C-alpha cells in the first residue's frame, strides 16, 4: 500500500519482496510522471538520504523512493549483481517501477536517479542498461566508474560486456541529462576505496580525480554525437560524507538547480 499524501511509508511490494523501499508522495503533485530514486552508499544510510531528498520532492512536486539494498541480498548492488546467479539489483528496481506505474496510474513514469558513493556506482551502471526509465542522472562521490570505452574490460570499461547483464545501451545513456559531484576534500585513500595500480592509472587515485576523469571521458563521447555535456560540481569543504554534502556542501542546491534547468529546457523545446 502506498503512503497517503504528505506522509512516508516503508513498503514491501510482493513482486519485489527482496527490495523494501521508503516512499513519499508530497501533498502537491506537480509532476505525476516523475519520481526521485535516491540510492544509498555501502553504509546503507537510507534514512539520511530520505530526509535530504524529501525536501526536494516537495519543491519539485514529485514522489520519492529510497530503496534498501541489504548486505545479505545485494552484497554488490554497486555492480548490479555479484554474478550471473545472484539477485539483480537493477531488475528488482525495475519490478518496483512497473508496480508503481500501475498503482500511480502513470504508464510513462520516469525516474530522477540519484546515487551517492556506492549508490552512484549503481546509478551509472543501471543507466547503461535501462536508460529508457531515466529522466535524469545524478552521481555524487562514486569510488570508481565503468568507462564508456572498449579499451577497458568490464567493469572498468565496456569491453567484454557480460551477456547475462543484458544489452548495453550506451548511446541512449549518453543522451541523459547528467550531473556529477564530489566533495573537494574527498581525497583520502581509505579502505572502502577500491585501489589497484591498474585502476589508479586508468581513473586516478582519489574520488576527486576519478570523478573529473570520468566526466572528461564521457564528455568526449558526447561531443561526437552533439549530446549535452555532463555537468560537474565540486562541493566545497566536504569530504566523503553524505550528510555534510547535503547540509553544508551545497549538494541539494546543485541538484535542485540542475532539475529546474531540465524543466526549462523541456518548456523551450515544447
Quick synopsis:
By secondary structure, the protein is an alpha/beta fold. It has helices spanning 46-60, 89-103, 118-129, 170-173, 197-203, 207-225, 242-247, 251-269; strands at residues 8-11, 21-24, 34-39, 63-67, 110-116, 134-140, 178-183, 231-235. 36% of the residues lie in helices and 16% in strands.
SSE topology sketch:
Layout: E1 8-11, E2 21-24, E3 34-39, H1 46-60, E4 63-67, H2 89-103, E5 110-116, H3 118-129, E6 134-140, H4 170-173, E7 178-183, H5 197-203, H6 207-225, E8 231-235, H7 242-247, H8 251-269
Parallel strand pairs: 3-4, 3-5, 5-6, 6-7, 7-8
Antiparallel strand pairs: 1-2, 2-4
Helix pairs in contact: 1-8
Overall description:
The protein has helices spanning 46-60, 89-103, 118-129, 170-173, 197-203, 207-225, 242-247, 251-269; strands at residues 8-11, 21-24, 34-39, 63-67, 110-116, 134-140, 178-183, 231-235. The protein starts with 7 loop residues before the first strand and ends with a helix. It is of the alpha/beta class and 270 residues long. The protein has one domain (8-269): Alpha/Beta hydrolase fold, catalytic domain (Rossmann fold). An 8-stranded mixed sheet has the order 1-2-4-3-5-6-7-8, with helices on both faces. It is 36% helix and 16% strand. It has 8 helices and 8 strands, in the order βββαβαβαβαβααβαα.
Amino acid at each position: 500500500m502506498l503512503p497517503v499524501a504528505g506522509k512516508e511509508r516503508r513498503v514491501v511490494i510482493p513482486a519485489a519482496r527482496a527490495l523494501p523501499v521508503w516512499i513519499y508522495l508530497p501533498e502537491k503533485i506537480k509532476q505525476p510522471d516523475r519520481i526521485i530514486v535516491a540510492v544509498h552508499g555501502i553504509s546503507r544510510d537510507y534514512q539520511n538520504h530520505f530526509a535530504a531528498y524529501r525536501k526536494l520532492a516537495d519543491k519539485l512536486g514529485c514522489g520519492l523512493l529510497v530503496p534498501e539494498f541489504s548486505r545479505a541480498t545485494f552484497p554488490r548492488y554497486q555492480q548490479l549483481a555479484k554474478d550471473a546467479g545472484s539477485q539483480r539489483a537493477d531488475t528488482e528496481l525495475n519490478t518496483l517501477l512497473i508496480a508503481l506505474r500501475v498503482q500511480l496510474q502513470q504508464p510513462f513514469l520516469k525516474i530522477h536517479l540519484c546515487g551517492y558513493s556506492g549508490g552512484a556506482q549503481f546509478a551509472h551502471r543501471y543507466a547503461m542498461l535501462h536508460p529508457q526509465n531515466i529522466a535524469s542522472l545524478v552521481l555524487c562521490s562514486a569510488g570508481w566508474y565503468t568507462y564508456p570505452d572498449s579499451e577497458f574490460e568490464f567493469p572498468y570499461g565496456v569491453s567484454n560486456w557480460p551477456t547475462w547483464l543484458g544489452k548495453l545501451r550506451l548511446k541512449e545513456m549518453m543522451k541523459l541529462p547528467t550531473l556529477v559531484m564530489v566533495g573537494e576534500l574527498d581525497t583520502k585513500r581509505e579502505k572502502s576505496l577500491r585501489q589497484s595500480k591498474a585502476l589508479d592509472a586508468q581513473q586516478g587515485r582519489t574520488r576527486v580525480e576519478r570523478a573529473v576523469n570520468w566526466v572528461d571521458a564521457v564528455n568526449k563521447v558526447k561531443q561526437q554525437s552533439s549530446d549535452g555535456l555532463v555537468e560537474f560540481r565540486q562541493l566545497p569543504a566536504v569530504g566523503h560524507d553524505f550528510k555534510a554534502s547535503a547540509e553544508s556542501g551545497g549538494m541539494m542546491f546543485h541538484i535542485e538547480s540542475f532539475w529546474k534547468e531540465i524543466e526549462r529546457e523541456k518548456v523551450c523545446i515544447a
